[in-house]
Amino acid sequence: MAQTEQSSALLAGRGRRKSGKAARNRLVGIFVPLLLLAYVAFAYFIVVTQYSYQYLYLENHASAHPTLTSLWFILIHILLLATFVHYIKVFRGPSSPSLPQDPPESIQRKRIIFESDQDGNPLRCWRDNCKGRWKPPRTRHCGTCGTCRPGFDHHCVWFNADVTAPDTIQSFLLTCFLAPILLIAALAPLWPICWKHATLIWASARSNPAVHRLWWRHGWWTWLGGPWTHYSWGFLIGAWLYPKHAAPVMQTDSDWLARPTIGTILLFFCGAAISLVCIGLLSTTLALLAKADLTVDVARRRTSARLSQNNPTPRDQSSSPPTSTIHHPLGVNFFWVPLPHAHSAGQRIDDDDGTAVSAGVVIPCHPDEQPYSAENWKQNLRIMLGLSPFDRLDRMTSWPISKSWVSTLQERAVNIASQQQASQSTSP
Question: Residue 242, Cβ neighbours under 10 Å: how many?
Fold first, then answer.
């Protein structure tokens, strides 16, 4: 009784933690896109209205290269539109999954290989509003959105939406690819101006007596965050106290360009940070997709490895039943494998409603094993991205197990069935 109450309390605690994490994710998911929108608006204001329109067009500084300037202006708007379209596709989220309540008849009667629970039954989700709905292969429940997503990769705070394969992952990759190109193309002409702003502000910060009184002359506490924060705060204070009547950087009526400001420097700093994040997401996601992996799968494997180190499983498991969860690490995937007729003679079973279902064996697969990975990376990419001949709609309810793994699962099932028959024949 005490153990039951302890288990209930543990489950309740986990539920509260998940609920709190989901609430935080939703809050961050609102805040981050708003920050991105503010950055895009500010960048458009500086690049288009202040530099392109005011400096190049009205003040006629583009007279030497009018064709090149026009092509650059058109290019950045095409890139901006393409990036915006793909961002919105991910931001709107994947289409609401119309998952059936129950699996197909071939799975219910266990006639094919399918991903199952440890007892060989189809996977079902009981979280939030799923209410026991069938979970097709590679379907995961998003705690932030409160629903199951086929091909769930991760919930991305940059879009405040789920990234799923193959529904929205194409637009996700294109956004990560186009955004750095857009930022480089848009900000490259302003780099000499930004660099001059930064050097003048730094020189003023090092020589201005007011900055020395406020920051540089103070002792150890200005170094609490390390050299990075020490010099960054000195730079910011120098920008704030930059002399208002100093000579302009360039001849223009735009105060944002003529006078050194922290705004243009932050424009480049944030642009570089966004570009690095996008390049990192693009490269890591493509590397995972080439192996038919998803971000959630990698996270589960890491968690499994960490828990296995803390609680190592016994090496000798010969006496354990094949589907026992006692010695299986977290993240193990189970597959129901129907037996060939030669090994299932006399083993057909009846379901609860009296319907005959095929006999078979539940095969556990270690988290490091990848039954859904094809023979080569090109085919994996086509499957994960829903390219021809792999229809993206099929990923809603099915996911192809590689031919080599089908043979491996069948071989394991036959071996286990043979061992079970041998043990039954030798038992008194």
Answer: 19
Collect all residues with Cβ–Cβ distance below 8 Å to 21 and sequence separation of at least 6.
143
Say which residues have a Cβ less than 8 Å from residue 365's Cβ, sequence separation at least 6.
332, 333, 334, 335, 371
pLDDT digits (tens, 9 = 90+) for 356-402: 556 899 999 988 888 999 878 999 999 899 887 776 656 667 788 99
The pTM (predicted TM-score) of the whole model is: 0.85
Kindly report whether the peptide bond that precedes residue 389 is cis, defined as omega within 30 degrees of 0.
yes
Share the mean pLDDT of the chain. Answer: 85
Q: How far is CA 33 from the centre of its chain?
A: 15
Task: Taking each helix axis as running N to C, give the angle between helix 262-290 and helix 377-385, from 0 to 180 degrees, rounded to the nearest 10.
Answer: 110
Rounded-to-integer distance, Cα 219 and Cα 211, Å: 14
Closest CA to 117 of 348, 357, 362, 359: 362
The alpha carbons of the chain give a radius of gyration, in whole angstroms, of 30
Count the alpha carbons within 13 Å of 318 in the hemisphere toward its beta carbon.
Answer: 3
d(CA 224, CA 314): 48
Residues 158 and 36 sit within 8 Å (Cβ to Cβ)? yes
How many whole angstroms separate alpha carbon 329 and alpha carbon 347?
29
3-state helix vs strand vs coil in the chain, percent to 5: 55, 10, 35
* Paired sense of beta strands 133-134 and 356-357, if any: unpaired
Backbone angles phi, psi at 284, to 5 degrees: -70, -40
Separation CA 387–CA 210 (nearest Å)? 62
Q: Check residue 331 and give left, alpha or beta (phi > 0: left; psi -120 to 50: alpha).
A: left
CA distance 358 to 340: 10
Q: Each residue of 133-178: pLDDT tens digit?
A: 999 999 999 988 888 999 999 999 999 999 999 889 999 999 999 9
With a CB cutoff of 8 Å and minimum separation 6, the contacts of 27 are none
Which tokens belong to 378? 């090109």
CA distances to 171, 251, 280 from 398, rounded to whole Å, are: 22, 64, 30
Give the three-class secondary structure for 114: strand
CA–CA distance from 391 to each of 104, 286, 395, 396 (Å)?
18, 19, 7, 10
Tokens 């996601």 locate to 285
β-partners of residue 250 are none
How many Å apart are CA 290 and CA 294, to the nearest integer?
10
- With 0-12 / 13-18 / 19 or more C-beta atoms within 10 angstroms meaning exposed / middle / buried, residue 145 is buried
